[in-house]
Write a structure and sequence with these properties.
The chain is of the alpha/beta class. The protein is 42% helix and 14% strand. The chain has a 7-stranded mixed sheet, sandwiched between helices. The structure holds pyridoxal-5'-phosphate. Pyridoxal-5'-phosphate binds next to helix 6.
Length: 499
């Protein structure tokens, strides 16, 4: 019934008093919303947001600052630049003098705050594309000529972007938007752990050189969307440098590792990147709409600079001069607050705790005959699948056939959908093409990103899946040592199907 009210829209005369509208929100919108903060909703890359962000949200809305220009965001322009400098230092660790000079300097750009990782990645490749063709005055740039004429002018056959087959699909969007073409995104294969195969990268770069292709950028992913794997950034940076290509690291998911003394080494080589994407609305726990593109060279974004008669003038100090988005709200306040209230130390502890939980879950899965751990987690995403009793021995002995895998794929897809529909717990799913040649493997995907998820919640999610599987397969799944039983009733707040 509630669902119908949402589907039908608010009935009755309009306008209505705000109190009436608020009743509608309380009655229909909130109960029908996805419960992103449930600790048993472990399938998304966004989860709980700290309470103080809601308070700041009211301030942001009331102030309604526009970060496109300084005169509409006097304080926030300064805070945004400060926050960007903190993140820049975490990646590039330049000296005090560097930050004293560039943090508030109008001519310098340490980073650009965007509404999402997609925009950050597109902006990185926009900068890379323009820099690749040289920027000899407005009338000679690729911005002016267009990509086809620029290729002819510079004698290249085509422009390409190289990334792994696990790179985020926003790279495809960027290739389309920038006129490079999706077919010119060269996807290098990954190993079983989801990391780019370095030998194949080198061979791809060599092919491009021989064919007269311009490599716009080589992209490493630090925390892939599928499984959180991290490409060999250090070696990739060296390959990119030798090829004269822009090196971009998409650390939308993996960036908080920068703040962990224990795990920072996993990002070794990120400092070689010309640009880095960080999604603050993922593991920095900011409200949605916060992503950062950092640039190593503060002058690099000049190749995307725009000016108008009425704002963004050369000496204006307007951040909108060098960003893809125009008008932009006060996300800077959330970022600045996160970096001061939770702080780098807090973010380090949070990511360490998330990784600890992912390892705990993997350990449980390994011990349970009913499940198969598919990819040992590099960070805090766990890929696994349910095995029905009839296929457990074959799986343990590595004798699963193509047909067996097809059966498993169907069963696991149904388990995921039924669990999602029941609404007591949630994991997502993905399909892996890198585990068996010619055999796609459907994986259940647990994202351990919610600080409130406990061991008992993980047990609940797995027990729920075993019960669903039991119903679907029609026979009781064998339990191992009772490792995974429901420990507590479902969290009160988890009401949505896609919590
Ligand atoms: C690795 C990676 N890059 C980029 C993105 C795109 O981010 P957004 O959804 O904020 O545009 C995602 C989103 O999940 C991602 O996982």
């Amino acid at each position: 019934m509630l669902h119908n009210e949402i589907a039908a829209g608010m009935q009755g005369p309009s306008p209505v008093p705000f109190s009436t509208y608020l009743e509608f929100v309380g009655r229909s919108v909130i109960p029908e919303s996805s419960n992103m903060s449930s600790p048993r909703c472990i399938g998304h890359m966004t989860s709980a947001v700290p309470g103080f962000m809601a308070t700041l949200g009211e301030v942001v809305t009331a102030l309604n600052q526009n970060l496109v220009k300084r005169e509409a965001s006097r304080a926030l322009t300064i805070l945004e630049r400060q926050a960007l400098a903190i993140l820049h230092k975490a990646v590039y660790n330049r000296d005090e003098e560097f930050y004293a000079r560039h943090t508030q300097d109008d001519a310098s750009t340490l980073g650009i705050l965007n509404s999402g990782g997609t925009i950050s990645n597109i902006t990185a490749l926009w900068i890379a594309r323009n820099a690749s063709f040289g920027h000899c005055g407005e009338r000679e740039s690729v911005e002016d000529l267009g990509i086809a004429a620029a290729l002819v002018r510079h004698g290249y056959r085509r422009a390409v972007i190289i990334c792994s087959s696990f790179a985020h699909y926003s790279i495809q969007k960027a290739a389309g938007v920038l006129g490079i073409g999706e077919r010119n995104v060269l996807a290098v294969k990954v190993d079983r752990k989801g990391c780019m195969d370095l030998k194949e990268l080198e061979a791809t770069v060599e092919d491009c050189r021989r064919s007269g292709d311009r490599i716009i950028a080589i992209i490493g992913t630090a925390g892939t969307t599928d499984c959180g794997s991290i490409d060999p950034l250090y070696d990739m940076g060296a390959v990119a440098r030798a090829a004269g290509a822009h090196f971009h690291v998409d650390a939308a998911w993996g960036a908080p590792l920068l703040f962990s003394d224990r795990f920072r080494r996993k990002l070794e080589g990120i400092e070689l990147a010309d640009s880095v994407t960080i999604d603050a609305h993922k593991q920095f726990y900011l409200p949605l709409g916060s992503s950062i593109l950092l640039v190593r060279d503060p002058l690099a974004p000049q190749v995307i600079e725009k000016q108008t008669r009425y704002m963004l003038q050369e000496d204006s100090g307007d951040l909108g001069k060098r960003s893809l988005e125009g008008s932009r709200g006060g996300a800077a306040l959330f970022l600045h607050a996160g970096l001061h209230v939770i702080g780098p130390e807090g973010y380090g502890l949070l990511i360490e705790d998330n990784i600890r939980k992912a390892r705990l879950m993997s350990w449980k899965l390994r011990k349970m005959a009913a499940f198969e751990l598919l990819v040992p987690p590099e960070m805090n995403i766990v890929l696994y699948r349910y095995l029905p009793p009839a296929l457990r021995r074959a799986a343990a002995e590595g004798r699963l056939t193509h047909a067996d895998n097809a059966v498993l794929n169907q069963l696991n897809e149904r388990i995921q959908k039924v669990q999602s529909d029941q609404g007591r717990a949630f994991v997502s799913r993905t399909t892996l093409l890198n585990l068996h040649p010619d055999t796609p493997v459907l994986a259940l995907r647990a994202v351990l990103g919610n600080p409130f998820t406990t061991k008992a919640d993980i047990d609940f999610v797995l027990a729920d899946q075993m019960e669903i599987a039991e119903r679907l397969v029609g026979s009781p799944p064998a339990r191992t040592n009772g490792t995974c039983r429901p420990h507590s009733p479902m969290h009160e707040e988890a009401t949505g199907t896609d919590c």
